[in-house]
UniProtKB/TrEMBL annotation:
UniProt entry keywords in alphabetical sequence: Membrane, Transmembrane, Transmembrane helix
Keyword DNA damage: no
This protein's name: Putative membrane protein
Organism: Olleya aquimaris
Record carries keyword Mitochondrion: no
TM region(s), chain numbering: 20-40, 67-93, 114-132, 144-164
Cited InterPro entries: DUF2254_membrane
Lineage: Bacteria, Pseudomonadati, Bacteroidota, Flavobacteriia, Flavobacteriales
Recorded superkingdom: Bacteria
């Protein structure tokens, strides 16, 4: 049963990130509501409303037909324009910033819901128009249903105005980076709140001789259900070491985890299903992606084709905040129960994360004095705010590497002297 629940949760999570998910849901709602109104019309609701509230009912067949056909044509035009704007947004974000930003933009629920409102209203108008059937020389007029069509069209116009406003804000790079930062910050703070304060006092045995379990699937390791693994660990007095790093692409037959004692087939299948794979990367599941995306935005901004140092500076500011949060987290993570470590989790270390981001940045900014000084500002802030002293040495190493790259790329001695003075001040602080 647990296996199917996990599969269903994973499947729904994948569906929800697709651009067509909410439009499909809203479309079904629109069709269902159209049939509900058709049933109500057959039971005389329009006649009842006309008798007591005549102002609420459209009582002219030509007027109703004109209203519905106009609404259908107008909604199709609005939908075409809206979808075109979405495609333009995705194209600009991919070419100007980074293709990695596309999943986050596509999964914007507000835009999906607005598109869903359009489609639901369109389908409702179509089915209402079809329900106007001739009876002899006259037509059976669903006057009350037409009133709802008018209400839905007004709603669509309001949604369209909001859509234009939202898209104009969404395309701005600082708003994109703000969203990336906010998602990563939320994820990091959640991890920090659940991290054990006594992590340094936990003991975990050497796992060199443990059994290796490999993956039978490939894809991005999106998330891991540690509740299932820890439950099995408690039931059979076992321990696990998760070797695969969440967010990385896992290849077929790559080692997923180590286990202290052998597992039976049922237990192994349950644990395999606890590893959820995806072809997409999501920040809410893996904060490392935010570091990658912000770094790529800064690198793209400093490329000769874009040459936008202002955007790169903003990206470095957000990276500084995220590195500061990450520096409060230990490189070692455990899942514990009753002060006993049941699962050891491999994560991207602070050193590797710092190297990944700064090696990419150095390649594109080492020739720019302002950008080099900005990165040194980041190092100065971090080296004075890290929680673990070991991280200070890592930051010092990155300062020295950046200084060496700047010396090889900047010819102006005055600029080099300014950079060297600032770097020495940070290292000797």
């Amino acid at each position: 049963m647990q296996k199917y629940v996990l599969w269903l949760v994973d499947y729904i999570k994948k569906l929800e990130s697709k651009i067509a998910f909410y439009p499909t849901v809203f479309s079904v709602i629109g069709i269902v509501f159209a049939f509900i109104m058709y049933y109500a019309e057959n039971n005389g609701i329009s006649g009842y409303i006309l008798k007591y509230f005549p102002a609420l009912v459209i009582n002219n067949t030509d007027t109703a037909l004109n209203i519905l056909t106009t609404f259908i044509a107008g909604l199709i035009s609005i939908m075409v324009f809206s979808f075109s704007m979405v495609m333009i947004l995705l194209s600009q974000a991919s070419s100007n910033f980074s293709p990695r930003l596309l999943p986050g933009l596509i999964s914007n629920r507000r835009h999906q819901k607005i598109l869903g409102i359009y489609i639901a209203s369109l389908l409702y108008c179509i089915f209402t128009l079809i329900s106007i059937e001739p009876t002899g020389d006259s037509y059976q007029l669903p006057g009350f249903s037409v009133l709802f069509a008018i209400i839905f069209m007004i709603t669509c116009l309001g949604a369209f105005i909001y859509f234009i406003h939202s898209m104009s804000q969404e395309i701005q790079v600082h708003n994109i980076m703000e969203r990336i930062y906010a998602d990563a910050k939320y994820r990091l703070e959640k991890l920090l709140n659940t991290e054990k304060e006594n992590i340094d006092n936990l003991s975990f045995p050497d796992s060199d001789n443990w059994e290796l379990i490999t993956s039978n699937r490939s894809g991005f390791l999106q998330t891991i259900n540690f509740d299932i693994i820890s439950k099995i660990a408690q039931e059979c007095d076992n321990r696990f070491e998760v070797v695969a790093i969440k967010g990385n692409f896992i290849h077929l037959d790559q080692v997923l985890y180590k286990v202290e004692k052998p597992l039976d087939k049922e237990q192994q299948e349950l644990i395999e299903d606890a590893f959820l794979f995806s072809r997409d990367e999501i920040i809410s599941d893996n904060y490392i992606l935010a570091f990658k995306q912000l770094t790529e935005v800064a690198v793209k901004a400093m490329s000769p084709g874009i040459n936008d140092p202002g955007t790169a500076i903003i990206a470095i500011d957000y990276l500084t905040e995220l590195f500061s949060l990450r520096s409060s987290k230990s490189d070692e993570s455990y899942v514990t129960k009753d002060n006993k470590a049941l699962i050891k989790i491999h994560t991207v270390s602070f050193e590797n994360l710092m190297y990944y981001c700064n090696s990419a940045l150095r390649t594109y900014v080492k020739h720019d004095v302002i950008m080099v000084l900005k990165i040194l500002d980041m190092f100065y802030y971090l080296i004075n705010n890290v929680t673990y002293s070991a991280y200070q040495k890592i930051i010092s190493t990155q300062i020295e590497v950046l200084l060496n790259d700047a010396k090889s790329s900047i010819n102006n001695q005055n600029d080099l002297e300014v950079i060297k003075t600032k770097a020495d001040a940070i290292l000797n602080n």
